[in-house]
Amino acid sequence: MIEQQQGPEDNGVLNRDDFYRLRLFVTGASPNSTRAIANLKKICETYLKENYELEIIDVYQQPLIAQKEQIIALPLLIKKSPGIERRLIGDMSDKERVLRGLGIY
Amino acid sequence: MTKDQKKDKSKLHYLQLPKTRTGISGLDEITEGGLPKGRPTLVCGEAGCGKTLMSLEFIVRGAVEFNEPGVFMAFEEKSQELAMNVASLGFNLDKLQQEKKLRIDYVHIDRTEIEETGEYNLEGLFIRLGHAIDTIKAKRVVLDTLENLFAELTNQAILRAELRRLFQWLKDKGVTAIITGERGDGPALTRQGLEEYVSDCVILLDHRVENQISTRRLRIIKYRGSVHGTNEYPFLIDEEGISVLPITSLKLEKEVSSGRISSGIPALDNMLDGKGFFIGSSILVSGTAGTGKTSIAAYFANEACKRNEKCIYFAFEESPKQIIRNMSSINVDLQKHIDQGLLKFHASRPTLYGLEMHLVMIYKLIKTFKPQVVILDPITNLITVGSVSDVKAMLIRLIDFLQEEQITVMFTALTLNNIVNEQTDEGVSSLVDAWILVRDIEFNGERNRGMYIMKSRGMKHSNQVREFVITDKGLDLVEVYLGPEGVLTGSAREAQKLQEKTGEVLREFAVNSKDREIIRKRNVLEAEISNLKMEFESIEEELNKIHQQEELVKQVTNKTREEITNMRRGETPAKNIKNDRGK
After folding, report:
1. Cys bridge to B279: A32, B151, B257, B422, which one at CB 3.0-4.6 A?
2. Could you read off the pLDDT of B300-343 as tens digits, one per residue?
3. How do the residues of chain B divide into helix, strand and coil, expressed in percent and rounded to 5?
4. pLDDT digits 0-9 by tens, B90-110
């Protein structure tokens, strides 16, 4: 299950410095995963509207990626950009922490 | 208990709890077959005690020796670091990974990069591990310091629940797993109490320093459903990995041999019923400093090599070169045997490592070299690394092992005083089969060596003290002088011999003169006897003469009477006259 969701920007916009590139790793349709997807989408729509790219990856489908990305705890959100890479684990229910992790606050 | 019964028992036992052999030398013996198959085992200990190495060896030996591929999940060291660390042990991790017999997965979590935003689980770990296990069909799994997760993730409740799930999952997967954990403070075996989750088998590694000498030890704290050795077993990490010693086998069911081997000194063999020592026996040579213990040991080694047997000489005092040089002065060429590969010297300072390490080293060497004769010279030096009871315990185990292997062993021991003390020699005298004592006999301003056999089990042996002489031709035993003045040795013996010789000459002379006197006396007596004889003869002759005269007179008278008678009858008157006169 790979979902791509991004704003209407063209390629030029993608290279902007404050463009959010996010990857969310989940495990199928487990409660934690569905909650994480829902919570994250809500946050993104609220704070990063049309300024983000979210890739949702089901680790069950791609077990190799777990090793490559050093995944232990799930769900895991990796913020590739902007700034340094950050990792957020959990179901994204703690909005404060998610925002802090993403560097929005 | 007989062997058969034992076999039955272990068979039954294997049915109850299947085990996975670790391939680590000695560990399978103390666990009676290895780790519980399909279950997790906890290996815990302080930093630097060998947890990672032990678990890695478990995986590598499994892959190489038992064809059981393994997954090594490292939470501490990177794959490359691991490979480098164990390359010195001859483990080629890269090659094993290419052959799909091994998979190393380095787990890296950095707390500073992570934000916890709610409920999570460790499914990622499960997926990684599951994938690794499935791709190489792993039978063995190691999680090296799983506890690192606790440092990186803060939600303890989740972690604990997930670990419980992980161990159950490992069991369901049917893999034999080792989980390592750092030793916690106080009585806790691990910092996070992993022992709560892993309840089947717990092995504790320890690294202790006593008298400035460090010894690694291993103990099986629990092993559910299995018999196991409960003692602390020393283990060694060397170029072949880990060796654990199941040394306290206290069975006394060894095979015995009635074969004999020479001590190399014919006179000593003669004292030992003329045949020497029993094969597989233990011999103690004790004595004060400079009494020739090493020489006796070297002779024994030399003799063994001459018979084309292998011999290891453990020297704790002198270097091999020193011994070879010194022995060549008494006509023993040890270098020749070394060149032929029959003799092996192993010299080490006792303080090099702990007693148990010495034992492990001795074991290893004996296992690889397979000698028929082993010499330890001297065992007394080992006392510098342990207490008397430690040394004794070590020697008991060593003797036990050697007897099991039918190896003849000779110990030398230094007795510290000149008084023969039956309690010295690290108390091994009661363990050994033969005890030869070399002692100084100080007398008349010189020291000499006296040798006697204190005991020699199972054979008739001489109870005599012999003088032990070391010359440039070699060793020999000389009968001591037993005279009215007691036991004499050395120059006193020689002096006594000389004195005796002089006495003999004098006595001979005296006897000779007496003899001559007797002869003279006899001659005189004989002369006298012949005189008397002659005298007697002349007297006899005189007597005979008288007798003859009388006879003659008789005859003449008779004749005359006859004539007179005849004359009276008228024939010859003269006869009567004569006859009258006769009346």
Report:
1. B257
2. 999 999 999 999 999 988 889 998 998 888 888 889 999 999 99
3. 45, 25, 30
4. 888 888 889 889 998 888 877
Mean pLDDT, chain A, whole residue set? 82
Contacts of residue A84, Cβ cutoff 8 Å, sequence gap at least 6:
none
ipTM: 0.85
- Pick the closest to residue B306 from B449, B452, B474, B477 (CA basis): B474
- Token pair belonging to B284: 């103690």
Q: Do A90 and B117 touch (CB under 8 A)?
A: yes
Residues B299 and B197 in one domain: no
Within this chain, do residues B240 and B264 fall inside the same structural domain, yes or no?
Answer: no
* Rounded Cα–Cα distance for residues B330 and B344 (Å): 20
> Quick one: B209 and B264 in the same domain?
no
Instruction: Please state which of the ranges A12-26, B47-61, B123-137, B533-547 shows the lowest mean pLDDT.
Output: A12-26
Q: Are residues B328 and B433 in the same domain?
A: yes
B114/A70 touch (CB, cutoff 8 Å), yes or no: no
| Residue range of the domain that includes A38 | 1-27+34-74
In this model, does residue B3 exceed pLDDT 60? Answer: no
Query: Quick one: B300 and B210 in the same domain?
Result: no
CA atoms of B119 and B94, how far apart (whole Å): 38
Q: Residue A87 domain-assigned?
A: no
- pLDDT, tens digit (0-9, with 9 covering 90-100), for B255-308: 777 888 888 888 888 888 888 898 888 898 888 877 888 889 998 999 999 999
Q: Which residues of chain A does B131 touch, with a Cβ-Cβ cutoff of 8 Å?
A: 63-64, 66-67
Tally of domains in chain A: 1
A68 found inside a domain = yes
* Residue B454 contacts A where some CB pair is shorter than 8 Å: no
Together in a domain, B190 and B273: no
Which one of the listed residues B32, B76, B232, B404 is annotated catalytic? B76
* CATH number assigned to the domain comprising residue B128: 3.40.50.300
Between CA B517 and CA B448 the distance in angstroms is 47
Domain enclosing residue B384, as ranges: 260-479
Q: Give yes or no: B196 in active site.
A: no
Q: Min CA distance, B157 vs chain A (Å)?
A: 14
> Average pLDDT of B335-361?
84
Chain A positions touching B133 (Cβ under 8 A) are: none
Catalytic hit among B46, B317, B404, B562: B317
| Chain A residues inside the 8 Å CB shell of B105 | 67
Contact B190, B221 (CB under 8 A): no
- Give pLDDT tens digits for A78-91: 988 888 888 889 89
Task: Reply yes or no on whether B68 is catalytic.
Answer: no
Name the residue in chain B with its Cα closest to that of A95.
B117
Among B450, B526, B445, B525, smallest CA distance to B481 is for B450
Of the residues B421, B450, B479, the one at which a domain ends: B479
